[in-house]
Amino acid sequence: MPKKAKELTAMEVGRLKEPGLYPVGNPPGLYLQVVPSGARTWIYRAMMAGKRRDMGLGGFPGVTLAMAREAAREARQAISGGVDPIEARKAAKREAVEAVASRVTFQWCAEQYLAAHRAGWKNAKHADQWANTLKDYAYPVLGDMLVSDVTREHVVRVLNPIWTTKNETASRLRGRVEKVLDWAKVAGYRAGDNPAAWKGNLSASLPKPSKVQAATKEHQPAVQVAQVGAFVRDLRAAHGAAARALEFALLTAARSGEVLGMVWGEVDMTARVWTVPASRMKAGKEHRVPLSEQALQVLEGMGPRDAGAYVFKGRPSKGATNTKLSNMAMNMIMRRMAYTDTEGRVCVPHGLRSTFRDWAGDCTAYPRDVVEAALAHAVGDETERAYRRGDALERRRALMQEWAQWCDKAGSAGAGVVVPLRAA
What we know:
17 helices; 48% helix; Integrase_recombinase_N; Integrase; DNA-binding
């Protein structure tokens, strides 16, 4: 007959701090486990279905000796009645999860997903876009629904009204709904396939996003290639940081946000390279821009070259001298210049990238991939990009120098060579 363990008092239990497994007696099989970290937990050890099993009863001192004894007695009584208390506990937990899941809505899951991932997104604007698209388009249909009840038909009902009119927004919305439903499945609030998945699911009901966007995309109003000479003359006659930023954008074919956010620490005047960090690139990938002689001349005329100082500064605000030029400042320059495209729309800064692309395609023999790389566009499929590691910097340098020289030549041409189209 096994030796009966001494029944310990609460004070004696409190003194057990060396790592080990200590029987406390009454009822038999109750132990206090002390681990090397110093944590102490209650264990009830008993024979269940012919096997010895350990059942955790909680941590000490949160669970007192009296509470542990009572729990052990209840487990012992259950075993005597043919019930496995460990399995019974698991079943109760499953039932509790299912009960919660039966009350969980799509909106609640979306809010939990946002809270969990917000810190990992690169900026607050991205988080706001997530929240706003769900609020505007998904919640009216899915918000109050039990997340377990969301079906493919519900998702289609969300997407259909904007799939052809706002396809880029709709495509992002679909992906966000898919992620929320994935989160809900992992959390145990729904089961089965994701009704917002594209491949083999929504792709059978909705037209491919690339085809919709190609059919509905409205291009930005761009200065025509034939207008570039007059445009360059007018632009160089304008004064101020906004005019110089616009000229630099023209010469580098860069996006407005990339130019306006540029600081001197990104520019290597000796190597004639401007390195745009991934955080400011649309594709989220660092981009090197070769600088032509003309682009360098623009930079030479700008302010002090402190590493953290903006190259194109705005007006000081509330005592701050290192302020970024606003995007509206560049837009206003183009509005005053009043150049229009073939449809009579006033041209905008972003359209200068299209002007460069039209010139490169119509007036040069540079390969398409070199031209697209100059615009920081992805070329080829995913496999091709995986094997193409270089960025064709030197080939792009020759292209951008040729572009700058062509702008110089066109801009220095005599009056009457080109008749610019202007807005009234």
